[in-house]
Amino acid sequence: MKLPAKSWITSYFVFFFFIWGIFLPFWGVWLAEKGISPEQIGTLFSLGLVLRFVSNIGLLPRLKNANAPVTLVCYLTFFALLCLISLIFFQGWYALAAATLLLNFLLAPMVPLGDIIGTRLVKQIQMNYGKVRLWGSVSFIVGSTFVGWTIGEFGHDSILWLIILAVFLNYSLSLIKLNPQLQAQSRPSAGSTNNLMTLLKKPNVIYFILVMGLIQGSHAAYYSFSALYWTSMGISEFNIAILWGLSVFAEVILMRFNDKLFNKWSVKQMCLLALVAGIIRWGTLYQTTDFAWLLLVQTFHAFTFALAHLAAMRFIAQQEEHSMVGYQTLYSGVALGLVMALLTFISGWIYAPQDSTLFLWMALILIPVFLLLKQWKSDPLPQEIND
């Protein structure tokens, strides 16, 4: 059986981000319902982020042929499905901890794998990647909103069953061949290098990691504990799902019109706006749980996450082609992985039900970024390009 390549990758993004739209905001809620403490959840989530880093670094470089990304998707979704099904029968501490960590390891490469497949199809069939990827974000909104409704109607066990269904659909899709199939892409020349240690010796790279790590890392507590906090404050799961869905919707809108809005902005200017928006967003969440205010500041996700991410992509695109993979690896693995893991771990120890101090802490860790931005030379220097 074959499926047109554009339909295949569109379905892939729809199925996976439906999973992600449930797993990110509500897996912690499900664990809490099973009796796992906030400290334990924070520890699991931080270790899970480390495992995401390990799986990306360990698995993605092993893609040796054109169809390897689809094959890896098949293996990852198969074992994720087995892991989830096991939770129907085993829900003790050790089973929940092992499954949470394993799911982080298995699901982490799915986003870059989709990007790899989509990028190749752009060249092969002149596919508009942005319009296809957009359906993934829409699916995230649908997944997070829908599970909020099912929790109210059927209880917290619906979280597990919906993820099982979505992973099964993703696995089934991986068994279907693309038409046309993926073709091999040219590889870097033998003389090029992506040595990460060499890049880490450059001060400009360190500033890049710290700036992006702190801006994106300020989301750690939000990703892991906002649903738990809002639940403790009496906000329903459905309204929490609305809040998460609105944030991603704002992200989609910014991604859709970013060329018109920020085409002439520098990397520093984009980061500065993301930084100010982050301080306002987390400061507001610290001050109030009024639903109208929450709706307003959730739209700031377009700036705190999406704009910062676009700034990182623009900075990476400015680098020499042979070093871009190294920059991307450091951004995904260190800034979005290890830094996020550390801040998630700390968040688990700070968080307490009905205590908004966690959001104040998220705002405070952004203050040093003003100084880092002043020192960071976001435009590549000639001597660095030629190193």
Could you give the topology of this structure?
Layout lengths: L1 E3 H29 L4 H22 L8 H22 L3 H15 L2 H16 L3 H26 L2 H18 L2 E3 L16 H5 L2 H15 L2 H13 L4 H26 L4 H21 L3 H8 L2 H17 L3 H30 L6 H8 L2 H9 L6 H4 L2
Parallel strand pairs: 1-2
Helix pairs in contact: 1-5, 1-6, 1-7, 1-10, 2-4, 2-15, 3-4, 3-5, 3-7, 6-7, 6-11, 9-14, 9-15, 9-17, 10-15, 11-14, 12-13, 12-14, 12-16, 12-17, 14-15
Notes on the protein architecture:
This protein has 387 residues and is mainly alpha-helical. The protein folds into 2 domains: 1-183, Up-down Bundle (Growth Hormone, Chain: A), CATH 1.20.1250.20; 200-379, Growth Hormone, Chain: A (Up-down Bundle). It is 79% helix and 2% strand. It has helices at residues 5-33, 38-59, 68-89, 93-107, 110-125, 129-154, 157-174, 196-200, 203-217, 220-232, 237-262, 267-287, 291-298, 301-317, 321-350, 357-364, 367-375, 382-385; strands spanning 2-4, 177-179. A two-stranded parallel ribbon has the order 1-2. It is globular. The N and C termini lie far apart (49 Å). The relative contact order is 0.15. Mean pLDDT is 84; it is low at 188-194 and 381-387.
Cα-based radius of gyration, to the nearest Å = 20 Å
Q: Give the second-level CATH assignment, the architecture of the largest domain.
A: Up-down Bundle
CATH class category name of the largest domain = Mainly Alpha
Helix content: over 70%
Q: Total domains, how many?
A: 2
Beta-strand segment tally: 2
Tally of individual helices = 18
Q: What is the element string, with H for helices and E for strands?
A: EHHHHHHHEHHHHHHHHHHH
How do the strands of the widest beta sheet line up side by side? 1-2
Low-confidence stretches: 188-194, 381-387
In CATH, the homologous superfamily of the largest domain goes by the name MFS general substrate transporter like domains
Report, as a whole number of angstroms, the end-to-end distance.
49 Å
The CATH topology assignment of the largest domain is Growth Hormone, Chain: A
User: What spatial form do the alpha-carbon principal axes imply?
Assistant: globular
Portion of residues in beta strands equals under 5%
